[in-house]
Amino acid sequence: MRASKQRRPAGVELMLLSLAWILAAATAFAQTPPAPSQTAAADSTAALVPSDTSTSAPPPAPPANVTASDAPSDGGGVVIVRWELSPDDAAAHLVESYRVLRSENGADFKEVGTVLAGKSSFRDSTSDGVSYQYKVVSKGPGGEGESETSGGMASSGQWFNQERWNLLILMLLVCGAILFSIWRATSGKPTYIRRIAGMDAVTEAVGRATEMGKPVLYIAGIQDMDNVQTVAGLTILGSISKLIAQYETHLLMPTSRSLVMSTARETVKEAYLSAGRPDAYREDSIYYVTDEQFGFVAHVDGVMLRRRPAACFYLGAFFAESLILAETGNSIGAIQIAGTAMPTQLPFFVAACDYTLIGEELFAASAYLSRDEKMLGSLKGQDWGKVIAMLFILLGSIVTTFAQGPGDSGAAHQIAAFLHRLWTGAAVGGG
Amino acid sequence: MKRGIPIAITFLVGISLVIAFFVPHAPFDSLDRHIPEYFNIIAAFAFVLGGGNLLRVHLTRITRRDHEWAYSIVTVVGFLLMMIAGLIKIGQTETGTGINLKADLADPALFFNWLYDGIFVPCQATMFSLLAFFVASASYRAFRAKTPEATILLVAAFVVLVGRTPVGQWLTGWVPPPFDQYLHIPNLSAWIMSIPNLAGQRTIQIGIALGIISNSLRLILGIERSHLGGD
């Protein structure tokens, strides 16, 4: 069958052969050395018009002010060499590249790298504590121009990444607020936390599954344990599975990552033990399916339609499968509680589930369910973080408005620039 | 002790990574690179654990004639077939069909890739295609104008949908300046997406960032113990 498909008519084969002959002849002609008369003509032309600029172009002027400095905010081992471009660099196109030469004793310079014309810096890998001197050579068709020798420079590691000073300030502010709130909560002062409807419905959902004699389905997202949403999903699982153990309901938890399966098993086992029902724990109720996104969805959808769980929890990181899962759960009439920090998937969960934990609520759910004072205190600290963010937004809006106004005295400009640096980590002068 | 060790490990690793983010000097400079590598090594072992668990769960179901046992046969056969085809690299060789252990796994002549492209990918595409139908049914429920908020959502969704198709231009292309800035549907659609929608998205993202910080701090300091069985 295959052979008959590949057979061509004889005419076509002849045409292909002829074409191949023509192509072969043309290639052979192109590779044949020119005739003596042709060579002579070419030589005479070369005598009149300079074809090679290396014989006529002057050597380029050398680059100036070569400096070497230790690379900032790094772990050491790097010296940055900078120079002013050769005057011939852009104007006359006489420079093709720059060769960077290095010496430890000021005499024996060896090439450590080359950069193209137009570049005025080079990062050299060095040994920490050894002083190096540098020269930069501009190289062009007409020759080379060698710069003066730079001062000696030794690389060393820094103990603080200066490009992240803004993040350090913001981290100290937010973490300080959270730690302060935790400390205040432990002092005995009652902490008010607004109601999270989705978490209030957990008892109702698990109770309904118990009454109906149907399992509770729990999906902790489709990401691995290195994703903070999966971690949040498993911390909530700890609280919910304690309730499941108390109600003597059956838990069903397919996972798409084997590490999540192992962690979830430990979490649920501890929860059952803590609830005084270690005998009710079934290891096989938490099992691995596949890492493949839609393979996993196909399995979970199948389980939903066959086992018809009365309550479905989707708490973790989800992608396109969010709506497929939630709509299938909706079609079987299960109470559905979802939570994710993926902004693109939130609308789907809101549309298809009974309750949705939006963004931060996913991370607050475990604390909310535990009612532990320290945990609730951390949520209060989170609110202080929001206050800080709101103040920055408000201040930024005001000073930016004034900085663009006609009567700007300069102060608003400076504050706006400072806020910009604080937010973006830009170097001094940014804004 | 059983809870103390995981909490101590979490504290040490968490604090070290925070320090490594701000300190580029040795020994912290390479921590953020090495710790994910350790995670990958553990995950590789866990994959064997996952495969073993998959076989154990489904073989148990088959032997017990448990409910859904027929599906378990498909799972086990599929798993073993793909694994064997991938491991011994069955496919077209110079001498015909056979085992070619030196073949590149990406070689399309391999039976493994035939299975992957011919069965797995279409199945995956089928599942993904279901999304189109689910979007329609979910939209139908979400966009019912039962409350003022739902009505605003419906109108905004309609404007955005129409504004992103040629119909938007066709309907309101005639609106003269300066009214076209807001009355021209594509412009109105762009305004909805870049002002109210973006503001809402950023609000959620700021909340998420704070939630992650708070949750991480609770885990690092050992305040969060729900995953270890609570108090």
Oligomer: heterodimer
Question: What value does the Rg of chain B take, in angstroms?
Answer: 28 Å
Q: Provide the structure class of chain A.
A: alpha/beta
Envelope shape of chain B = extended
Order of SSEs of chain A: HHHEEEEEEEEHHEHEHEHEHEHEHHH
Q: Briefly, what CATH class of the domain at 197-371 in chain A?
A: Alpha Beta
> What is the helix fraction of residues of chain B, given as a range?
over 70%
Strand content of chain B: under 5%
Low-confidence stretches of chain A: 1-10, 12-17, 23-54
Structural class of chain B: mainly alpha
- Briefly note the CATH topology name of the domain at 197-371 in chain A: Rossmann fold
Distance between the termini of chain B: 13 Å
Primary descriptors:
heterodimer; A: about 425 residues; alpha/beta; Immunoglobulin-like; Rossmann fold; 6-stranded parallel sheet; 5-stranded antiparallel sheet; 14 strands; elongated; disordered N terminus; B: about 230 residues; mainly alpha; two-stranded antiparallel sheet; 8 helices; 2 strands
Question: Can you offer a commentary on this structure?
Answer:
Chain A is an alpha/beta fold and 431 residues long. Among the domains of chain A are: 64-154, Immunoglobulins (Immunoglobulin-like); 197-371, Rossmann fold. Helix content of chain A is 47%, strand content 18%. Chain A contains 13 helices and 14 strands. In chain A, helix 4 crosses helix 13 (411-424). The N and C termini of chain A lie far apart (71 Å). Chain B has a domain at 143-231. Chain B has a two-stranded antiparallel ribbon. In chain B, a hairpin with a 2-residue loop joins strand 1 and strand 2 (96-99). The longest helix of chain B is centred in the last third of the chain and has 36 residues, at 185-220. The radius of gyration of chain B is 28 Å and the shape is extended. Classes of the chains: A alpha/beta (431), B mainly alpha (231). At the A-B interface, helix 4, helix 6, helix 7, helix 8 and helix 9 of A face helix 1, helix 2, helix 4 and helix 8 of B.
